[in-house]
Design a protein that fits this description.
The protein is about 60% helix and about 5% strand. The chain is mainly α. The structure holds zinc ion (ZN).
Length: about 325
C-alpha cells in the first residue's frame, strides 16, 4: 500500500492514489482495485484486473501508456536510488551506461527516461551524454528539499503560531545539542557568523542599504541547527529558518530602514549571547536564551500589522483549526 508518508514525500504517488480512488470498485470496503505499491516491486498491472467476477466494469480502464511509464518510471527511480545508496553514494562516478540500465532494470527507453527525470529532479543522479556517458551520481543538495517543504507547508496553511511552536521545539533541541557537542572549529564558525551579522547591522546603520535577504542574514540559526550534529534537526532547522526569513522579508518590505536596522541590531546582540553560552558548553543557559529569543520574536510577529501584505504573507496569520 502507499503509505501516508510516501504520498507526502512525492506528489506522483499521491496522484497514483487519487487515480485509484476514482475507480468505482474502490467505493467498497477494502483496498482499491488498482494499488500501486512501492513496498513490493511487482508490476502495477499485476493487481489491476477486476473483471474476474464476470461483471463488466462500469468504466473501461484504457491502458494509458504515458501514465504507465510515469508509474513504472517512479518505481525504477526508487530502485536506482536504493542501488546508489547500496554502493555508498559514489558522487561524481558513473553509475551505469544507458544500455546497462535498460538491461539491469528491464524497462523500455520511455520508462528509463522518466526514471532519470525523477532522479535528476531529486538531485540523486544526472544523465551525461556522449562518450563515457550514462547516469552519473550527484551530490544531493538540501536547497531543493527545503524549498519544496517550505512550499508544502505554505500550501497546507501553516500559521505564524505553527512556525514558532515548531521552532521552539526544533531550535531549542538544536541549541542544547550544539552546546553539548561544540568543538573549536564549530566555535570559530559561530563567532564568525555573529560578527558578520554585526557587520551587516553596522552597514545598515551607515549606508542604510541591504535588506534581510542579504547573504549571511539569519545564518546563526541555520548554523546552530547544523552544529547540533543531527542531520534531521539540521534539515528541519533549515526549513523553519527559510520560512522565518520569508516572513521577515515580508515584514521588512513594509517597514522603514530604521526599524529594520533596530531589529537587526537587537537580533545580532541576542545571537551573540546565545552563541557565548554554546561556546561555553552551557546547554541550559543556551536553551533558556534561545527560548526567550523565540518567545520575543513570536510576540513581535503575531502582533505585527500584516493588513497590507496579506496576499504576500508566507504563513497564515491565524492558526486554522485542523
Ligand atoms: Zn534570531
Amino acid at each position: 500500500m502507499v503509505s501516508a508518508a510516501a504520498s507526502l514525500a512525492d506528489p506522483h504517488v499521491e496522484r497514483a492514489t487519487a487515480a485509484a480512488g476514482e475507480d468505482p470498485e474502490s467505493t467498497r470496503l477494502g483496498p482499491p482495485a488498482v494499488v500501486y505499491s512501492h513496498d513490493d516491486m511487482g508490476s502495477p498491472e499485476a493487481s489491476a484486473g477486476n473483471g474476474s467476477d464476470g461483471v463488466a466494469p462500469v468504466v473501461q480502464r484504457v491502458p494509458d501508456e504515458r501514465s504507465h511509464d510515469l508509474k513504472l518510471g517512479e518505481e525504477i527511480a526508487m530502485r536506482i536510488e536504493r542501488d546508489i545508496v547500496a554502493r555508498g553514494w559514489p558522487v561524481g562516478e558513473l553509475f551505469a551506461t544507458e544500455a546497462e540500465l535498460l538491461e539491469t532494470y528491464g524497462v523500455s527507453r520511455g520508462v528509463l527516461r522518466e526514471a532519470i527525470r525523477l532522479l535528476e529532479h531529486h538531485r540523486v543522479a544526472r544523465s551525461r551524454r556522449g562518450r563515457g556517458g550514462g547516469l552519473m551520481v550527484t551530490e544531493p543538495d538540501s536547497y531543493s528539499a527545503v524549498r519544496s517543504l517550505a512550499l508544502l507547508l505554505q500550501y497546507q496553511g501553516a500559521s505564524i503560531a505553527d512556525l514558532f511552536e515548531a521552532r521552539k521545539s526544533i531550535e531549542v533541541t538544536a541549541v542544547e545539542l550544539a552546546a553539548s557537542r561544540i568543538d573549536p572549529a564549530g566555535a570559530a564558525r559561530l563567532r564568525e557568523a555573529v560578527s558578520s551579522e554585526q557587520q551587516y547591522a553596522d552597514d545598515l546603520e551607515r549606508r542604510q542599504v541591504g535588506g534581510p535577504r542579504s547573504p549571511g542574514f539569519h545564518d546563526v540559526h541555520v548554523l546552530i541547527a547544523e552544529l547540533s550534529g543531527n542531520p534531521m534537526i539540521r534539515l528541519f532547522g533549515d526549513v523553519s529558518a527559510r520560512m522565518f526569513s520569508d516572513l521577515l522579508f515580508t515584514w521588512a518590505a513594509g517597514h522603514g530602514a530604521e526599524e529594520i536596522r533596530d531589529a537587526s541590531a537587537e537580533g545580532s546582540h541576542v545571537h551573540e549571547r546565545i552563541v557565548e553560552a554554546i561556546i561555553a558548553g552551557d546547554a541550559e543557559v543556551a536553551r533558556r536564551r534561545m527560548l526567550r529569543h523565540l518567545d520575543a520574536q513570536e510576540r513581535f510577529f503575531l502582533s505585527a500589522d500584516w493588513s497590507r501584505f496579506e496576499s504576500w504573507l508566507p504563513l497564515s496569520e491565524v492558526r486554522t483549526a485542523r
